[in-house]
Specification:
By secondary structure, the chain is α+β, with helices and mostly antiparallel strands. The chain contains four helices and eight strands; from the N terminus they run E-E-H-H-E-E-E-H-E-H-E-E.
Length: 204
């Protein structure tokens, strides 16, 4: 797992109260296509892609790489959570050399508003804290994406700065007080209105 360090990948499936975070499988292909073809999901990530284009381009087993967790509910994929190294050339860094782990997520619109994004992201952050203790995790989202802003606060991200990218104002935050098994050690931002999000944190 060179992208995130020396951790072996894939890890054992991560089980929460309602979900399983696991490696991608061939049976997840339709859900991957549904995510990237959804106009609702694409609102804050640069738009959706044509379904016929995705049918041609998406591999038989999509998302099979280090840092990608499929979020499984009752045996079916409902979304994904990613942990990737942030490009050091992009604005927003908390380490002098950049390359922080960055949290991302996508969920199918039909499961929005049920707390699944918060539950899955917390589990992924807890796994990361155990695997690479002391490493910060960052997140960047459009300030116009109210649901993403609320979820960032709920997960304990501290706002570091705001800047313009992809033609919109972005909020860049960091969390570094996340304990093992997905438990927050400290809630550094008070939750804003509402609770959950089903869209990717990315702000294109």
């Amino acid at each position: 797992m060179a992208e995130l360090g020396t951790v072996a990948w894939p890890p054992a499936p991560i089980r929460t109260e309602r979900l399983v975070l696991r490696e991608s499988e061939a049976r997840d292909r339709a859900a991957f296509i549904g995510l990237f073809a959804s106009p609702e999901v694409g609102t804050y990530i640069g738009g959706s892609r044509p379904r016929d284009e995705l049918e041609r381009a998406v591999p038989e087993v999509p998302g099979r790489r280090p840092g990608v967790f499929v979020v499984d509910l009752d045996g079916a994929m409902i979304g994904m959570v990613t942990l990737d190294r942030r490009d050091a050339e992009r604005p927003g860094q908390v380490r002098p050399d950049g390359g922080e782990a960055e949290l991302g997520y996508l969920f199918l619109p039909e499961v929005w508003g049920r707390g699944y994004a918060a539950e899955a992201c917390a589990a992924a952050l807890g796994w990361f804290a155990d695997a690479l203790p002391g490493e910060p995790v960052v997140l960047c989202t459009r300030t116009a994406n109210d649901r993403a802003m609320r979820l960032a606060a709920k997960l304990g991200f501290t706002e570091v700065e705001r800047f313009e990218e992809y033609g919109a104002e972005q909020c860049f935050g960091e969390v570094c007080e996340f304990g093992s098994a997905g438990h927050l050690e400290q809630q550094v931002l008070p939750p804003r209105r509402g609770d959950d999000l089903g869209e990717l944190n990315g702000g294109r």
